[in-house]
Amino acid sequence: MPVRPVAFHVFVKDVDATFERAIAAGAMALGEPEDRHYGERAGFVSDPFGNRWYIATALGPHSLASALRTVTPVLHLPRAAEYVEFLKRALGAIDEMRAPGPSGELRYGRVRVGDAAIELGEGDPMPGSFMLYVADPDTLYQQAIAAGATSIMPLSDQPYGRVGGVQDPAGSQWFFSRPVTASS
Asked: Of the residues 8, 50, 86, 178, which has the fewest C-beta atoms closer than 10 A?
């Protein structure tokens, strides 16, 4: 199975201390912490496993922190605007924000899938692997296939719940699961 390093946007109380702790633990600096125009103080690292971490502390009401979770996945890929449209068709994603770059490319975008946010933008491909917990994995699996994804794990009942998986045209894997609950 190929290694799938991904990128995460993570909010912490003290970006400078967390950045230094990450470097001391073996991460490589990609950008020193500084105040950013988009409302956060952020520094960037790559961990020893190839994952990128965008470490941030909110600076005020214009920070992305108000729209995201503590840790949010970030997808880098070519034709990111087209990928947003795929996510809408396949996963029912809701377009929350788009910031175009100087050539019209998607510099930054954010979509909502259920109660989760996903950030994305143009860049060297970093396909990831994601688990979505949903009430009806069968419908979402079929919706993703109809939108152009390919099956990598047919739907089946497992001791831990009903699960199936697809790979999208950009190479990311999406698994849909209805986990077994204590009342099941």
From this structure: 50
